[in-house]
Amino acid sequence: MQTKAKNIFITLAAQLGLIKQDSQRLSAIPLIERLKVALAAFIALFVVTFTCMQLADAASTVVLLASMGASSVLLFGLPNSPLAKPWSFVGGHLISASIGLMCSHLFTDLALMAAVTISLVLFVMYIFECMHPPGGATALVPVIAASDTALGYDFLLYPVALSVFVMLAVSILLNKVLLRRGLQKPTQKFDPVHLHHDKSPLKRLGLQTEDLLSALNSFDTVIDISEQDLERLYHQAQLNAYQRKSGEIRCHHIMSRDLITVTPYTAIANAWQLLRKHKISMLPVTDSNNQLLGVVATVDFLKNLKVPHYWGLLRHLNNLLLKSRHNKQYKRRVEEIMVTKLTVVNEDDHIAALVPILSDQGLHHIPVLDAQQKLVGIITQSDIIAALFSHQVVNSQPVSA
After folding, report:
1. Count of CB atoms within 10 A of residue 354's CB?
2. Where in the chain are the domains?
């Protein structure tokens, strides 16, 4: 009996949203990110309020604050939501304010005025693809003010347009600088790494972008998630499923540990000889404490060259092989050509995390760091292929009786 009552309580709590069983738990978002969002909202509301109090009518500015506060929740708390896109935010407020102002001059009954305003706002938001819930509150500002005195059409400029564009500018700046989020880019129609029109490797199988868009557009209500986020969610779910099925294969199980490294002060000619001697295409660059500073790959020796013809390229490669102290190439150091913007993994990361890095980012080698951020290994495409093949062979073997 107690178990049945407990199950009923859990089901009811889940339906009411008290227990997050079938949706994202906000508490799963890191605390530091939540604090940053709160700080961003504080800065934005302060700047918008201060600016409008200086340049616009104080009374209408105060009434409009409720709308701007609601918008800040979307702009900072749900930045990737279709409801928080710049056009949804700007159009949702300006169009709604225009409708509310028009209705405040056409009707005298407050109930009828409010009802007509909100119904028109919703319908027009559908037409102009600018659904933004706080816009409904903005539309009601001139409606509420009409019970005392009708607002003039300058209300659209001061404070509505002023508040909207100040909030938009501040939110874009804060999302980029404080929250490290940029505007979502449109889905790439080609492979962005190799610049051809084939889809990236992970997108060639399974669900396609067209499938996700078709599914989104099949609903008769607004789904508060973008196609890009839905695609990321799908791929993350795939990786989680693969991790569950493939067991606990970690990076430290498959990485190469006997590494050939150089320092930033190693001569370029020496680094080139190491690549040729060991038949490898990338060298990690480390300091005396084995901290990873960068990498130097075969392509780094050539990418900054201005070679007019084939024989010039051959001369350059030949110069790299000469060990003369007076040779210009020999005097140059690895730090001049090494790459410092790196993609790395931790030795305890699951190998499922390597798949999108190696397949879609165009990388061939991934440095592996330990808990102290020291270099402990390298994983190549060959390593991950061998690991996946070995796991497949083991799982496909019949169990003896």
Report:
1. 23
2. 27-177, 253-393
Q: How does pLDDT run across 271-305, given as a tens digit for each residue?
A: 888 988 998 889 999 999 999 999 998 888 776 55
**HEC profile of the chain:** CHHHHHHHHHHHHHHHCCCCCCCCCHHHCCHHHHHHHHHHHHHHHHHHHHHHHHHCCHHHHHHHHHHHHHHHHHHHHCCCCHHHCHHHHHHHHHHHHHHHHHHHHHCCCHHHHHHHHHHHHHHHHHHHCCCCCHHHHHHHHHHHHCCCCCCCHHHHHHHHHHHHHHHHHHHHHHHHHCCCCCCCCCCCCCECCCCECCCCHHHCCCCCHHHHHHHHHCCCCCCCCCHHHHHHHHHHHHHHHHHHHHCCCEHHHHCECCCCCECCCCEHHHHHHHHHHHCCCEEEEECCCCEEEEEEEHHHHCCCCCCCCHHHHHHHHHHHHCCCCCCHHHHCEHHHCCECCCCCEECCCEHHHHHHHHHHCCCCEEEEECCCCEEEEEEEHHHHHHHHHHHHHHHHCCCCC
> For 119-125, what is the mean pLDDT?
96
Look-up of token digits 């037409």: 127
Pick the range with the lowest mean pLDDT from 106-115, 124-133, 213-222, 332-341: 213-222
> Which among 69-78, 193-202, 206-215 has the top mean pLDDT?
69-78
d(CA 213, CA 231): 10
CATH superfamily of 253-393: CBS-domain (3.10.580.10)
pLDDT for residue 324 is more than 90: no
What percentage of the chain reaches a pLDDT higher than 90?
A: 38
Angle at 157 between CA 154 and CA 159, to 5 degrees: 100
| Full-model pTM | 0.67
